Amino acid sequence: MKKKYTLSFLFLALFLFAQNGFSQTELSKNEYGTLIQNWLEKNKGDYNLTQNDISDLQVSNAFFSKKTKINHVYVNQAFQGIPVFNAISSVSIKDKSVFYYANAFQSNIAAKINTMTPTVSAQEAIVSAAAEYNLGALGNVNAINASNNQYTFSKGDISGSDIPVKLVYQTTIEGDLKLAWDLSIEALNGQNWYSVRVDATNGDILNMNDWVISCNFGEFGHTDHTGHSKTSNAFSLFKTEASIAADGSQYNVFALPTESPSHGAIQLITDPADLDASPYGWHDTDGVDGSEYTITRGNNVWAQEDVNGNNAFGASPDGGLALDFNFPFNPNQEPLGYQDVSTTNLFYINNAMHDIWFKYGFDEGSGNFQQNNYSNTGFDNDLVIAQSQDGSGLNNANFATPADGQSPRMQMYLWAAGTLSTPLTINSGGTLIGDVLAAIPSTGNSGGATGNITGPSATPVTADLALVNDGSAAPTEGCAPLTNASAVAGKIAVIFRGDCPFTQKIQNAQDAGAVGVIMVNHNNPDNEPNYQEYIVMFGSTNPPFTIPSISVNYNDGIQLINALQNGAVINGTIVESPNYQKDGSLDNSIVAHEYGHGISTRLTGGSFNSGCLSNSEQMGEGWSDWFALMVTMKSTDTPEMGRGIATYSNSQGVNGPGIRPAKYSTDLGINNYTYEATNDDTVLGTDGNGNQVHWNDVVHNIGFLWGTMLWDLTWKYVEKYGFDPDMYNGTGGNNKVMQLVIDGLKLQPCGVGFVQGRDALLAADSAMGGEDQCLIWDVFAARGLGVNASQGSADSINDQISDFTTPPDTDPTLVNCTTLSVDGFTAESAFSIYPNPADNVVYIKTKKNLGDVTINLIDINGRVVLSKKAALINEAELNISTLQSGMYILNITGNNVNINNKIIKN
After folding, report:
1. The model's pTM
2. Has residue 225 got a pLDDT over 50?
3. What contacts 503, CB < 8 A, 6 or more positions away?
4. Contact present, 132 and 139 (Cβ < 8 Å)
5. Which residues form the Secretion system C-terminal sorting domain (predicted)?
């Protein structure tokens, strides 16, 4: 039976929660205050804390997790009632004792403070911030309420919402604590939500972080891409009817796990809301049967267009009383033409993310996004405001996450049209059917020759396809006059790329009577099964060719060639095809990534502090990539296959490189990055102010390293427990790791770094019985986050120390260790690696026949500098004579082994 609440009951519950949740309270007033205080006093020496450091503590948030049976209490360090900004430790209570403590307190705070008395008022602090960030004239900014150095000011003419201000201590670079006003201003441009600390003695800006996380997905400008898909009409999302809140709603969307229009067909889905997460469906807000809205608005999200880019409330598609959002999708037009589909898909993905992660613990009590918290825990009035086709930017997306009780905002932009289009349609025959992405010939100067190879025209050329044969050792390259001219005449010639000029190949096809040419790229150096690279043909001919030519990638072209060689009759059309902008709202990986920022922000350090992921070593981009990968994961995926991020919006193919330093893959040949790469200060260029930008200055690169580790962890869980396509209620390894990561986010402290993030995951597993401690250690150690790894200061990105060792077998925390180094081997027991240090040759001797292995040598920057395949039956050798002196990681992988060991080159 669905719950119904009286208005008076709801008001009382919300009032009580507001009293205990929105403003910080003394630790002693918390149910577990005495327990926590006694534990800290007993263990303060382990964290270099004095009695003074823990004598004035405040609870910023507290809630209970059902799965782990943990009471999470987030404790803010304070001095004389004034909190230290972001000094929020996570304390986990289980079975009436402290189960886990993640420290974020500072040492000896009494000696670091400058004053307890502000000489700059709270309103003057707002004036300083407005001037610093050019927010314009304040207008009527007046105090609405005030209590204990905490104020709320009206938004005036500078903010989209009321301005909260409170007194805190801000840590300086030198480690001092300066009295400051902590305030947040939602800029009217919609691009910034400034969280600022203003010096309470002179009005200087001490610290700022922007709650709007802009992800710059399009900054690398990749150019390949894949084709469009056709509409189908079936969907279940792997849930039984018993778990569905049926209101008859239906949506024509790219349903998960489909990632984008490149990855699968648009589908009409019915009643997708989950009964636990959205018990009244997706269009309810009052907690009573019956939808309040017939547009893309409800309890979890309000999706609307913002074509004007003015951050005002835009139009939302209307499904009528039947909630029928079955709008037609035609990708062969500018995105404005399918705006209703765009906004509907944005509504769907936001709701799906809400429902999926609700099942794993991102619920109302922990700070999720809902207009009405049906459980009476957490704060209401914070559904996601999601804006499609936002006109204020291009090639980007962002998500702003204020504290619990304030709505986050998601902005999805359009993306510049790529260099490819769909000039080829396979009408019948073979396995490649429909529109196919292709590159048209160059019309500029390339390779020293003016390009005048003829591309497609508005007049379609339709004919059967024919594979060329020039009678040479490489007959399908067409470098000599064709010997099968009669078979090619009147056909579209299919030619393999080779060493001779494009013009020579096309001329031979035209001379044989071909009516068009499809050039297939066969440069596939690593023999990747789904290799995708597009070639742009160029060359000078006089007179110009009379037949159109296009080029396709290897993956598509080899399907045509194989089918033709097997006797298939394939008919195709070559015609001019306009290339349109892409719509980020249809790229589910981007929408899920952005929503993921909201999850990690709300769960780290508690939902009432949105600044806990503002430190240098924070991993927010990594969690967001991982969230996107998990909801688009399919049963046909493999651990080694590379997953690129945002391939659709960046006009890449489904197997495109994505926009990270490497694809997400467990294969070190594809992704060999380790923790040491956080220290990579390679100069990438300069910013708009002329300052050098280093590799590790880019938050997406740091996040990518964490995402890599989480993706490796995911596949270890799948390897052990299998894969379950039911994202909501499944029991596979993917479901287990989804639970683990959500629990880990709750356990970690404010200002988390890699080591603390790893430890939180280990603690989360321990809370559920500790069955996978060894598995977790194995994964992180393999990427350099082993037992002796150090994150240094989480506020620095140049002091990390990697380590590739796992705990000893005698470690009492290791339970049922059957997965360490895959089959129980350790470098010490299974191998002899000598000499070490070595000058020229390292010998690897094994006590057991381990079969075929790959031996990689990885430098301290995470690069594979030497790779060798060997049959490790008794002994193998590795010649390192050409390498520079220093420390390397020797990685040996095979069907029966996965070992890392340090070696030193003299």
Report:
1. 0.79
2. no
3. 453, 539, 540, 541
4. no
5. 833-904
